[in-house]
Amino acid sequence: MYKILIVEDEPLVRESLVTTIDYSSIGFCIIDNADNGLNGVKSYIKYKPDVIITDIRMDICDGLKMLEEISKLDDGHCQFIILSAYNNFEYMKSSIALGVVDYLLKPIKNDELIRILLKVKSRLDKMQKERMAVAEVNDKLSRLKEDFIRTFFINGVHGRESNKLFDVLGLDPQFDSFYSVYATMSGSKPALPDSNICNYIGCNIENDSYGFIIFNDEKYSFALKLAEQNGNAKIGVSNIFSDISDLSVSVENAHRAYQNCKNGVNVSFGIQNDTHIYSIVAQAKQFVKENYSKSISTKDVADALGFSESHFMLLFKKATGTSFSSYLLSYRMEVAIMMMKTQRYRIYEICNSIGYKDIKSFRNAFKKYTGMSPVDYKNKLDKRKDEIT
Q: pLDDT-derived band of residue 185, with 50, 70 and 90 as boundaries?
């Protein structure tokens, strides 16, 4: 049944509208009634009626003002019927502009209101059929898109066939770059990144395996967010490509990257060959060598090399087997130990020389690395030198 909201400030008229018509016999039910436009808006928000029957002249907030506010919230579905004791042309003109379907003069005749409601019902029935048809088309298109992706990830499609499938499914192939992701994620509904991160299409391939094609995402935001939101996932990420004819190559690349997800590695990138990865690591180490005396972080290095922090951390660990933060700590502590061995620097001077802002942070980091405080370690070196001499 379609839901009706009645808004009328005269109690007797409102009571009559609610009780004197058998609405259920014509496919309607009264969902609520209100005594002014302000309460009418509140009731609309709460119940989302299909039809609003309202008086025009009311205290606090009149009918036209109420309909104006509701029109801002409604998607065009709700039907408005106006009641008035005045045959006023300006009211009629304003109500037409707001999409009012009919205008009834008081005193209201039930048979006239029923006639209008039946007309409204026909209109609502038609709108419902149209929405169902659109939903069915969208559902079919969605399943076609999923079949399209599944075809790539299972069978592969080559060359010009990629463009044909994009055309058939109405997908826009105009993009700067794309990459593929192959992932396994346990659970009936894995968490997927929000579509505002980037444009992507994807589907469940079979069981726990999923495939995605991601567009214009040079920083791999989708892949990294997918890993973040699904802690148990294993994710293979392809190279970045620009030619749609390379789509199958991209998918194959994602599959190969996925095979490297072992020994605790949950995300594997196929973005560079090993030579390129080691070149990136070499650049990172050079950055540390030149800037370790400053208060630098992993993010500073990643920014300098043009990567997101998460992506850079994954690359560095893949190439070296250790995290970048551990490498930075190790480099600074070895410099500190070398300075201590010269016996020319005080602890606070060493601290300032390797990028620490305060003694406490340096002391904690040094103890974590060597198992001893800086003072104890320095005393140990002094004692050893005395024994030698």
A: confident
| Domains of the chain with CATH codes | 2-128 (3.40.50.2300), 160-271 (3.30.70), 276-388 (1.10.10.60)
Encode 172-196: b = buried (16+ Cβ within 10 Å), e = exposed: eeeeeebbbbbbbbeeeebebbeee
Tokens found for residue 179:
């990459």
pLDDT band at 190 (very low <50, low <70, confident <90, very high): confident
pLDDT in tens, 86-121: 665 455 655 555 667 787 888 889 999 999 999 999
Q: In what order do the strands lie in the sheet with 28-34?
A: 28-34, 2-7, 51-55, 79-84, 100-105
Residue 304 exposed, middle or buried by CB count within 10 Å (0-12, 13-18, 19+): middle
Q: What is the pLDDT of residue 167?
A: 63
* pTM, two decimal places: 0.47
Given a contact cutoff of 8 angstroms between Cβ atoms, the answer to whether 259 and 236 are in contact is yes
| pLDDT over 70, % of the chain | 86
The contacts found for 17-21 with CB under 8 angstroms, 24 or more apart, are 17/53, 17/108, 17/113, 20/110, 21/110, 21/113, 21/114
Strands 100-105 and 79-84, how do they pair? parallel
Among candidate residues 39, 50, 45, the one with its CA nearest the CA of residue 14 = 39
Q: How many CB atoms lie within 10 A of CB 60?
A: 13
Alpha-carbon dihedral sign for residues 208, 213, 216, 218: positive
Q: In the chain, what is the straight-line distance between the N-terminal and C-terminal CA atoms, in Å?
A: 100
Q: Exposed (0-12), middle (13-18) or buried (19+): which is 65, by Cβ within 10 Å?
A: middle
